[in-house]
Design a protein that fits this description.
Layout: H1 2-9, H2 11-45, H3 49-52, H4 55-76, H5 79-96, H6 103-132, H7 137-158, E1 169-172, E2 183-186, H8 199-229, H9 248-282, H10 289-305, H11 307-313, H12 319-337, H13 345-359, H14 362-373, H15 378-405, H16 409-436, H17 447-450
Antiparallel strand pairs: 1-2
Helix pairs in contact: 2-6, 2-7, 2-8, 2-9, 4-6, 4-15, 5-6, 5-8, 6-7, 7-10, 9-10, 9-13, 9-14, 9-15, 9-16, 10-13, 12-13, 12-16, 14-16
Protein name: Major facilitator superfamily (MFS) profile domain-containing protein
Keywords: Membrane, Transmembrane, Transmembrane helix
Pfam family, one: MFS_1
């Protein structure tokens, strides 16, 4: 009965929340589309692998611009109206990008869609925060998980549209009366741009974004009608921020560590998610592209759903101890991958599983540690997020360039980022223990401050 009553009393807020989740799911899918189809886009655009990989930083550059302008836009326009327009722009330009045969046109379309993604990234978080106020923490967790689910679904969606590699077995049925066993024939014909079908995956995600724009427009009209009826109501602003309890030196030290963690987490996630499938094909393993996409699916599964295990465990065990276990998972993943994943399939599978589980809660935990001790303002959020998005753009491009010359360099790149992340997060735990004197249970006493979180995709 309580559940039914809650749904009835909050049906409009639940509807807005569902649209935000669907928007973020499409955002997660868009972030991973390029990584899953990069090799096919190389054929489509008729460029080398190093050049086609620059599509990733083009999209990320738009993401950075959109994130930086989201606050300015939100102050002047209704949030749901902006989200509706951004979904429409994202759907149109994301779907159009792979249909071009020239690199420049595809890059421009992805840049424009990236701007929409950056705005959506920020406004969906603020939408959930404003909708549920002090009860927004769990709703935000679900929002962030929808990004991972979208990233997980993308390789599954792309896999049927990927063309086989040259020399990959192709099964054809014999055309005879008895329908005998399939004939296995290797493909020796090099695929051409007209053979590429990966654009259909982009068009499907784009179509979903366009559909989501319609109910968001309805929500905008509904809110506008409600505001017109209540335009004489006086609204009290509660933007006054409490003073920080710590000296600027101590606070800035914690912020710097979280900024570095943000940069490393975003970068490592983007490098593995975008280039992991391509590495499995180009490495000495010579896995086929569909198996490589399956490998990316396993990584995103561990990254997304490990939180379903981690979050309940925080109520029965020390969160610091759980995070130390996560650091151990990351260290094990790095040790297994470097350099054994280049020649042993079992190593690349196990290594990616451990890396996915280890990465999953790291950024949120680091942000929570900081929010426990200092007030997270909009300025601090921007300082934390922008370096992460920049790393999400720069590191995959650099790793792809190195991988084009030597595929095994991808593993050393992942290993370097992973070790730096383990060390930095360990330093943050020690810093909070010694400087902020953090208790073991980070979950206790931070509910109100965590509700101020407005920008976090992880």
């Amino acid at each position: 009965m309580k559940l039914i009553r809650f749904i009835c009393e909050n049906r409009f807020r639940l509807f807005k929340t569902l649209l935000a989740y669907l928007t973020f799911l499409c955002l997660g899918s868009a972030l991973n589309l390029l990584g899953s189809s990069l090799l096919d886009l190389q054929i489509r655009l008729n460029v080398d692998f190093a050049k086609v990989s620059y599509l990733i930083p083009f999209r990320s550059a738009g993401h950075i611009l959109g994130s930086a302008s989201a606050g300015f836009i939100e102050q002047r326009f209704n949030r749901c109206l902006v989200l509706s327009v951004c979904n429409l722009i994202s759907g149109i330009f994301l779907g159009a990008a792979p249909n071009f045969f020239q690199f420049e046109y595809a890059a421009c379309c992805l840049f424009i869609s990236g701007i929409a993604h950056g705005i959506m990234d920020v406004l969906c978080n603020t939408l959930i925060t404003d909708t549920w106020k002090d009860k927004c923490t769990n709703w935000l967790q679900a929002l962030h998980m929808s990004v991972g689910i979208g990233s997980l679904l993308t390789p599954v969606l792309c896999r049927p549209f990927l063309i086989p590699e040259e020399g990959e077995p192709n099964v054809q049925r014999a055309i005879n009366e008895t329908f005998a066993s399939p004939i296995i024939e290797p493909i020796n014909i090099k695929p051409t741009a007209s053979d590429v079908k990966a654009q259909y995956a982009f068009m499907i995600i784009g179509a979903i974004s366009v559909v989501i724009a319609l109910p968001l427009g309805y929500v905008y009209l509904k809110e506008r009608s409600y505001q017109n009826k209540n335009k004489n109501n006086v609204q009290i602003s509660s933007d006054i921020e409490p003073k920080q309890e710590w000296s600027p030196l101590k606070a800035n030290g914690g912020i710097i560590l979280v900024v570095i963690i943000s940069h490393l987490v975003y970068s490592l996630e983007a490098v593995i998610g975008s280039l992991g499938a391509s590495f499995s094909v180009k490495s000495d393993l010579h896995m086929d592209k569909r198996t490589g996409v399956l490998l990316a699916t396993v990584f995103w599964s561990c990254f997304s759903f490990y939180r379903l295990i981690f979050i309940p465990l925080t109520f029965v065990a020390s969160e610091v101890k759980l995070l130390l276990v996560n650091l151990l998972f990351m260290f094990i993943g790095v040790v297994i991958c470097v350099p054994w994943a280049n020649t042993h399939q079992i190593c690349i599978w196990i290594g990616f599983i451990f890396l996915g589980m280890g990465l999953s809660p790291i950024f949120s935990a680091a942000y929570a540690m900081l929010a426990k001790h200092i007030t997270i303002t909009g300025k601090i959020s921007t300082i934390i997020i922008i370096p992460g998005v920049f790393g999400e753009s720069a590191h995959p491009a650099l790793a792809a360039t190195l991988m084009a010359n030597s595929p095994i360099s991808f593993l050393y790149y992942v290993g370097l980022l992973g070790i730096l992340l383990v060390v930095t997060f360990g330093l943050l735990i020690i810093y909070c223990k010694l400087v902020f004197r953090t208790p073991n249970g980070l979950q206790r006493g931070i509910k109100e401050r965590l509700s101020t979180l407005s920008i976090s995709r992880h």
